[in-house]
Amino acid sequence: MCLSRGLLPGSVPPMAVGTSPYAPGGASSMGADPIRVLIADDEPALRIALADLLAHDDEVVLIGSAGDADEAIQLAVDEHPDVALVDVKMPAGGGPRAAREIMRVSPDTRVIALSAFEDRPTVLEMLRAGAVGYLVKGTAGEEILGSIQKVMAGGASLSSEVIAGIVHELTQQLRREEAAREERDARRGEIERFVAGEGLSMVFQPIVELSSRSTVGVEALARFRSLPLRPPNEWFAEAVQLALGVQLELTTIAQALRELDRVPEGAYLAVNCSHHAATSSQLARLLGSDAGRIVLEITEHEAVEDYVALVTALAPLREMGARIAIDDAGAGFASMRHTLQITPDIVKMDMSLTRGIDADRAKRALAAALISFTEEMDIVMVAEGIETVEELDTLATLGVRFGQGFYLAEPAQLA
Fold first, then answer.
1. Are strands 215-224 and 133-136 parallel, antiparallel or unpaired?
2. What distance in Å separates the CA atoms of residue 3 and residue 400, rounded to the nearest whole number?
3. Which residues contact 92 (CB under 8 A, 6 or more apart)?
């Protein structure tokens, strides 16, 4: 710290350091109470130099010094200083913690942050923590004293180097925020385009009986035309973040229903549906008289907070003839909880269980337990993601009757 009085660290009498309530010269020549100052810095030499600076000014008085954030906070509790000079980097949580806690326990204390110039990225953090001044170590003594006076008068005090740093950081931050906003707006525009039915198409993957290979149903899968290409699950997740999730789901369901006449006779159409979309009043109107050929696959775009509300919303859809499936069973706790709470008509074994099941004893044991549960509950089991004949044969041996996957048929448009 460069002090204009030319004093070197250590050239101060011992009385200037510590927690004495009033240092020599405490009474102001103007008769006003001196400004009571707390110093918090883990460098003893700097604390001594600052104490010496304050001891030579009649308008201020040192009420205590601390070497870490905990000591500084305790001093604030005991002494309620007018101003606290707080180092940005110190033990026990650093300057931001010290600043927040000092102002919590002593709301009238004005905090001035101190840091080395290379700590410039911490400027905004300290300002967010509540500091009203920020000085670079090396600031002249007169400027330090002036800053104390200024913040006591209700103003803010920032070193010129800090101001330049803040301008730079804020400029960069604003640019980043602007770029993020433009990206978000572009994504929203794309999703709104999909919600309007533009750039959206449907493909259908057959669900077959494994023994006869006859098609018993088809699952509708959304495809989005946009560059750069992104998988559908990313678009649905982003739509949820932008509060457009239900609208996008309902659009894809409506698009799939337009193809119902092309679904093989006697087969059902499975559409993906989150619990939010399932509780939407628009869904029943979409299904209408076709509900009897529809299977709603409950997906996990978001956690279900209220199963009673979901089951209540599904009841009239079931009365209309729609069946309920739980997607990705075995992939995690959520899907099993769906199964127990909703009592579905169909459970779809997740592809993470299906893939390589022929060579994995643990997967076979878990699949066998899941199959046994569905049989006991009169629930139809469908295995997803079948990609090899070995997987198909193993699943059939375990008792799985239905499945889908690239080995059986790839997703495609309906003929």
1. unpaired
2. 83
3. 68, 69, 70, 71, 98
Structure tokens at 321: 């003839």
Task: State the architecture of 14-158 in CATH terms.
Answer: 3-Layer(aba) Sandwich (3.40)
Q: At what angle do helices 245-257 and 232-241 cross, to 10 degrees?
A: 140
Assign domain 182-403 one CATH number from 3.40.50.10540, 3.20.20.450, 3.40.50.1360, 3.40.50.720: 3.20.20.450
- Find out whether 323 and 271 touch, Cβ atoms under 8 Å: no
Q: In what order do the strands lie in the sheet with 83-87?
A: 60-66, 35-40, 83-87, 110-115, 133-136, 157-158
Q: What is the largest CA-CA distance in the chain?
A: 103
The string of pLDDT tens digits covering residues 159-205 is 655 555 565 666 677 678 788 888 888 889 999 999 999 999 999 99
- Give kind and range of the element (H or E) at residue 54: helix 44-55
Domain ranges of the chain: 14-158, 182-403
Alpha carbon distance 237, 315 (integer Å):
27
Q: Tell me how far the alpha carbon of residue 350 is from its chain's centroid.
A: 26
CB atoms within 10 A of CB 407: 15
Nearest to 84, CA basis, from 50, 56, 33, 123: 50
Owner of token pair 């101001």? 163
Question: Any bridge partners for residue 82, and if so which?
Answer: none
* Tokens matching residue 222: 């959304």
pLDDT of 19 reads 38
In DSSP terms, which residues pair with 383 in a beta bridge? 349, 403
pTM value is 0.61
- Measuring CA to CA, which residue among 404, 367, 362, 366 is closest to residue 383? 404
Confidence of residue 4 (pLDDT cuts 50, 70, 90): very low
Pairing of strands 133-136, 110-115: parallel
Sign of the alpha-carbon torsion through 334, 340, 341, 347: positive
CA-to-CA distance for 104 and 187, rounded, in angstroms? 41
Rounded CA gap, 45 and 49, in Å? Answer: 6
Indicate the residue type of 15.
M
The set of residues, in sequence order, having a beta carbon less than 8 Å from that of 27 and lying 6+ positions away, is 34, 58
Q: How confident is the model at residue 13 (pLDDT cuts 50, 70, 90)?
A: very low
- Taking alpha carbons only, the member of 6, 406, 402 closest to residue 211 is 402
